[in-house]
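Deliverable D2.4 — example input (structure tokens):
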């Protein structure tokens, strides 16, 4: 009698599992939504730098934030006093914590495990208001932080997170946008050259609500800021914008996730960066997921990098996953290059020097994003910071 042979298990993409170990479970996660999630750092293995989410990051410089003991006490922070905006510290078991997202990697989980209290900023005004949250008095001690920014239903507001000075900071920022609300959140990184900053931003956007998320990274030794925007209510709109300028030896990284999980949602992603100096390194990874239930989605993402000198590196990786064919449209684009010679020639033909022509091109390139902030004082200060970067490159 012939003995029946059990069929071999088949892993993803039709590959056959070997008998020597749990091969099928070692296949890398191919879909962003399938990544393991946890608020407990113990659920994540130590980072080696070979993981998909860490392979572009100088992980050796992050050891204190990934593996060390983090101070989870209150950060020294100030918030502008504006009618219609409140700020308070709450315990980590407050019901407002954990609504916008969950860590997908060890750095964010370490910060979540360590924080003692969360800083909650609530926008309740139905007329447009602006609040500035300043963190510029930190020190070099490794810290963990948790911030919640919430816009009540039909509220309108602009919240600016100002980061400056020295720091070793790992943080999670939750953004909750109520139904019909319009919220802009801006995170500005003007840290000192020795600063290390890991940040994961999670957002959930309500029905017919709109979130504009803007990142401006100009300072810091290592900055890794990853926004995840979940359009999980019908008619939600999300825009993710970024501008960054990397100098010699500086690492600026942004991994953007736009998750369409409801019908008739819309998203736009635009990140633009400039690089100059030996060892300047930028990383942009853009993930867009259009789920099966997200019919009528309209989505587009793009990343542009302008290389100003030799010796720089810009990694740019757009990813688009579509699980339904019933959409308005979706696309992505990525480009990295030097100055457009035609633009330079045109400006020189108008009597502008080659050096000034290059400065004008870079200004226009980055200011397109900075001009979307909507606060004149912040925009003017960032314009001056970019000018200072350009002046350094001309020396």
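Example output (designed residues):
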């Amino acid at each position: 009698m012939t003995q029946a042979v059990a069929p071999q298990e088949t892993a993803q993409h039709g590959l056959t599992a070997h008998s020597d170990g749990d091969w099928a479970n070692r296949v890398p996660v191919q879909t962003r939504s399938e990544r393991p999630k946890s608020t407990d750092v113990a659920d994540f293995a130590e980072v080696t730098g070979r993981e998909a989410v860490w392979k572009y990051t100088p992980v050796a410089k992050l050891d204190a934030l990934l593996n060390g003991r983090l101070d989870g006490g209150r950060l020294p922070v100030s918030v502008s006093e504006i009618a219609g905006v409140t700020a308070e510290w709450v315990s980590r078991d407050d019901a407002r914590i954990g609504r916008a997202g969950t860590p997908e990697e060890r750095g964010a989980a370490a910060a979540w495990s360590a924080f003692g209290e969360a800083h909650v900023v609530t926008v309740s005004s139905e007329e447009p208001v602006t609040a500035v949250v300043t963190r510029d008095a930190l020190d070099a001690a490794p810290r963990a932080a948790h911030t919640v920014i919430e816009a009540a239903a039909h509220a309108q507001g602009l919240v600016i997170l100002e980061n400056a000075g020295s720091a070793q900071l790992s943080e999670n920022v939750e953004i909750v946008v109520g139904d019909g609300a319009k919220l802009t959140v801006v995170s500005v990184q003007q840290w000192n050259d020795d600063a290390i900053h890991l940040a994961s931003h999670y957002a959930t956007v309500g029905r017919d609500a709109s979130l504009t998320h803007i990142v401006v990274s100009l300072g810091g030794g290592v900055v890794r800021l990853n926004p995840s925007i979940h359009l999980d209510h019908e008619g939600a709109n999300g825009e993710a914008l970024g501008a960054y300028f990397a100098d010699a030896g500086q690492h600026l990284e942004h991994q953007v996730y736009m998750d369409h999980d409801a019908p008739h949602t819309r998203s736009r992603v635009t990140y633009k960066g400039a690089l100059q100096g030996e060892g300047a390194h930028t990383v942009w990874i853009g993930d867009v997921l259009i789920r099966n239930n997200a019919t009528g989605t309209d989505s587009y993402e793009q990343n542009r990098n302008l290389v100003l000198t030799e010796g720089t590196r810009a990694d740019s990786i757009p990813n688009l996953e579509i699980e339904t064919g019933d959409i308005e449209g979706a696309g992505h684009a990525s480009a990295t290059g030097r100055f457009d010679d035609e633009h330079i020639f045109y400006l020189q033909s108008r009597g502008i020097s080659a050096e000034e022509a290059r400065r004008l091109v870079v200004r226009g390139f980055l200011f397109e994003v900075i001009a979307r902030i909507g606060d004149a004082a912040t925009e003017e200060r960032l314009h001056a910071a970019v000018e200072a970067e350009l002046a350094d490159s001309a020396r």
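Residues 43-339 form one domain.
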